[in-house]
Amino acid sequence: MLLFEKADDCGSKAGRQFYACAACRDRKQCAFFLWRDERLPAEKVRQWRQRAAGESRAASHRQRYDRARAILSEGDAQYCLTCTALVPASVAAEHRSHPTRPADTESARRPTQLLRPRVCNKSSAQYLFSPDTVAVLDGVLGAAGVRRVLCCGTPRLHEHLLSAGQRDSLLLDLDERFVRYWNRGVKRGRDAAPAPLTSGPPHSTGWNEMLESGG
After folding, report:
1. Alpha helices in 5-130 (DSSP H)
2. Which end of the chain has less neighbouring CB within 10 Å, N or C?
3. Is-contact 62 193, C-beta < 8 A?
4. Angle at 175 between CA 146 and CA 84, to 5 degrees
């Protein structure tokens, strides 16, 4: 949440301040809103607590990852673009009218190519790096001797770094879909958990040391 301020059309006169979601510019996407000078109503407190409790009961990162791995291990899985979900072969008929893509453990290594990018410009529009851009960034990191990379909203770079196995990578992203495909190295909100869905090169666990040292 951030503190915002309303202004006149010219932007010269300061107005009333309020708290709102920093990620969404559409109240339909995130309804949080509070005037800075507002006395918080008890009913609003109750609603927020109720919503927070519901979110805390949602499946954990590990549970969603394990569920995806189980579906892929059965074979002949599909990814439904309408439902944004992995679909096991046993229920594929229920998604017959939806556009789907074949999904297996190999394609799960590259979820940015499996998932359809989001296009909502007011909250979560995604613009993915091209392969050439990823190669340039990887080259810059290599030339600088970087060993640990914090990828903020750059899942395709994170995906490449995990696949290459030469550097540790931690992804911070608003898109909750990625937690199904990486059991480590993804952080969304309070979720934390670096390795691709299938086995790959081991990664060090020195993130705490890096953050504490500031480097």
Report:
1. 42-56, 61-73, 111-114
2. C
3. yes
4. 130
CB 186 within 8 A of CB 61: yes
Give residue for tokens 């791995």: 69
Give the whole-angstrom CA distance, residue 91 versus residue 39. Answer: 50
Q: Which of 5-14, 158-167, 180-189, 190-199 has the lowest mean pLDDT?
A: 190-199
End-to-end CA distance of the chain: 26
Q: What is the pLDDT of residues 19-64, one digit of tens each?
A: 888 777 777 777 788 888 888 788 888 887 887 776 655 567 788 8
The dihedral region occupied by 23, where left means phi > 0, alpha psi between -120 and 50, and beta the remainder, is: alpha
Measured between alpha carbons, how far is 155 from 151 in angstroms, rounded to an integer?
A: 7
Q: Provide the 10 A C-beta neighbour count for residue 38.
A: 12
Residue 11 banded pLDDT, cuts 50, 70, 90: low
Distance CA 105, CA 122 (A): 33
The SS3 assignment for 163 reads helix
Instruction: Name the 3-class secondary structure at 14.
Output: strand
Q: b/e string for 161-181 if b means 16 or more Cβ within 10 A?
A: bbeeeebbbbbbbebbbbbbb
Q: For the segment 126-161, what is each residue's pLDDT rounded down to a tens digit?
A: 789 999 999 999 999 999 999 999 998 899 999 999
* Token pair in block for residue 142: 């290599």
